[in-house]
Write a structure and sequence with these properties.
globular, single chain, binds pyridoxal-5'-phosphate, Aspartate Aminotransferase, domain 1, 11 strands, seven-stranded mixed β-sheet, four-stranded antiparallel β-sheet, Aspartate Aminotransferase, domain 2, alpha/beta
Length: 406
Amino acid sequence: MVEKNDRNRSRKGLADDGRSDKTKLITSGRDPFDNFGIVNPPVYHASTVLFPTLDDLDASLAAPFVGTHYGAQGSPTSFAFQDAIAEIEGGDRAIAFSTGLAAITASLQAFLTAGDHALIVDTVYGPTRSYCDRILKGFGVEIDYYDPLIGGDIKTLFKPNTKLVFTESPGSLTFEIQDIPAISAAAHEIGAVVLMDNTWGTPLYFKAFQHGVDVSIHAATKYIVGHADAMLGVAVTTEEAWLPVRRATSLNGHCAGPDDLYLGLRGLRTLAVRLKQHQETAMILIDWLRRQPEVERILYPALEDDPGYAIWQRDFTGASGLFGIVLAKPFSREAIVAMHDGMQLLSMGESWGGYESLMLPRNPARIRSATKWESSGPLLRIHAGLEDPDDLIKDLEGGFERLRKS
Ligand SMILES: *Cc1c(COP(=O)(O)O)cnc(C)c1O
């Protein structure tokens, strides 16, 4: 076991202090009385770390990944962010990355080598799929995609060389909810690890480690940073999964920048209040959207008539502000352009999880192979931001009017 003395130990103690998540978001990853009484931890800019004697340097080399050794291995700034995320999600430890995608690719590499077989959910984030197809397959890893609704029947896809199951719930773009406990139980029976892209659920609304996940990955770029101003990723692990992921991280040369880590830590403090509002606004917008004749379907697991509702209610403690709508017929390109180009508040752009609302058309059919995506019309992905919902509805009213007229 690796010593955990890279932790920025809090005077008030780390986990298991009986505090609620809301309080942990405020207290974790900082210790004012180790820091001149200043509330927030400092930002360390570091590459070289000095050792007073050769013996000290050798001792550090003999204990890899303990404490500070070189900038890329971490500093009190990354330790603070990592400790906070691990504590809130209930994992053992965490590793920070420059992007969410880097956290995903390093975690995949940590457990896969030539000749291994990996099962990847068909509704996985597009770039994760591209990494599997373009990089992992080229290195001799066998990849199969599976139906997100497969549950415990995932065992029918296992091969003697299956080493890893990758999950993402809800699925990118189409929001299918996976039965993570059933998938994890099956995978663990054959000694395979379970990775999850938990970006939508966040460390607050899906407690990955209570549901059998070994590595829970977040694009912190989204809700954790929360202000559309930094790229950041994090992999939270069990005690056993930490060393392989930590090694793969270092061997790939990954690390997160100190100012971005600081923004991640700052975003964390308000995560609970922001998510509550994102969810509330999403529900208000959905209530309006489902009354429009042009909307055929809403993709959001927190709705009672959503196919994923039962499992979402069983396993999640909340819903975030990202959802999809499926239009009832194949509108012309001109109609979709008129709708989107005229929006004032629901802007077009990649990413989500910031304070601002977003809307853009997406085509999930192109990135499926194990399942088929069929719909009467285009899918629009909406992020409910923190604006007044009444103003967002006015903006949507204008959008639907332009859609109808074109
Ligand atoms: C954005 C996103 C990522 C990648 O995060 P980056 O920080 O942009 O690399 C991974 N997974 C999901 C579900 C995402 O939405």
